[in-house]
Structures are given as structure tokens and as C-alpha cells.
Hints:
By secondary structure, this protein is an alpha+beta fold. It contains 3 helices and 12 strands. The strands form 2 sheets. Strands 1, 2, 3, 4, 9, 10, 11 and 12 form an 8-stranded antiparallel β-sheet that branches. Strands 7-6-5-8 form a 4-stranded antiparallel β-sheet, with no helix packed on it. It is globular.
Amino acid sequence: MTQEQTEKRKKSGSFWRELPVLLVVALVVAFGVRQFVVQTFYIPSESMEHTLDRYDRVLVNKLVYEFRAPEEGEIIVFESPESWRNSMEEKDFIKRVIGAAGDHVVCCDPQGRIEVNGHALDEPYVYPGNKMAPSAFDITVPAGRLWVMGDHREASSDSLANYNSHGHDLQQATIPVDAVIGRAFVLFWPFDRSTWLTRPETFDGIPH
């Protein structure tokens, strides 16, 4: 056997010895990314139609809220309060943030729009034929909490639905910021509907 053949055999043997280590490292990295950075979620209900349809898949940034609080207009995944669930399996919900801590959220102005701190929201993404809110309300979001609503306003177990069903109790109607898992930023499945999930410009006008 030539020296060249011997070296090739050594390199080949080295690769197969190192392969299990490389696989373990790859699995650890993938697990770390899923646990702490980005995770996929599927849409289990009609509550965000047609921004997100049932069984769509989204990517969720789990790191962003380590550096700042969720903002109005962003679509978030969160661990739902038990009182919001029809069954204990319904753990992770996805909704749009309408009001953050301290925001005064009112429905509705003469044009039927929700107002946040006196700023009327133009929401073309709301499900066709739905009102911007199924019923009138006038609330101020408590500290450390969020007022969230589905884009399919009349088919969403959200802050307004739970505000009405729990005797206008804001602690029941809002979610704690600590329950937020991350921000949905990409719709990636189905591919023919893939898009960035950006914060609508109408929320830029909210005064703080």
C-alpha cells in the first residue's frame, strides 16, 4: 500500500470516528435554536383569519422580547390563561397586540374604529364583514399586561371575549407579558402564501 493510500484510509477512518460527535453537536445546536431563538408554530383555529388561516405555519422569534416589551400591532404567541381555554390542550394562543401596559383602548369612534390613546386604528386585515370589535368597551391596560385580539374578531377567544365573559375583569381579560413566548414574524407554510408578518403602519401613530 502506498503512502497516499494509507493517508486516505486514515482520513476516512477519522471522518467516521468524528461523525457521531458532529451529529450530537448538530442536534444540540438545533435544540438550542428551537428552545431559545426560533420555533415553528401552527395555527390551530380561525381566530386570526385571513392574516393567518387554520393550519398555517409561522416562525416565532423567542429572543426579541428579552430585550424589549411587545408592541402594539405585533402578532405574538403566548401561553393562554387557563380560563381562556376550552380544553387544557389549548395552551399556546396567537393574537395581535392591540394595547400595551397603560394604553387607553376604546371601541369605537364614529367610524367604528378602535382607538388607542385617542389614535384611531385603520385595520384592513380584520376579517371581511366583521366589526372592529363585536361590542363596545373602554379600558386601560394594567401594568405588566397586554390587551390582545384576533384578526377574525367575531371568532376569537381574546381579550374582549374574556372581558365580556368574566364580568369586565381586566386581570382575566388581559395576558401577562411574562406569558409571551415570542413574536410571529414569518408565515412560511403554505409556500404560496408565505410572507413577513410586519407591524401595520397604523400603530405607528399611537401616542405614549
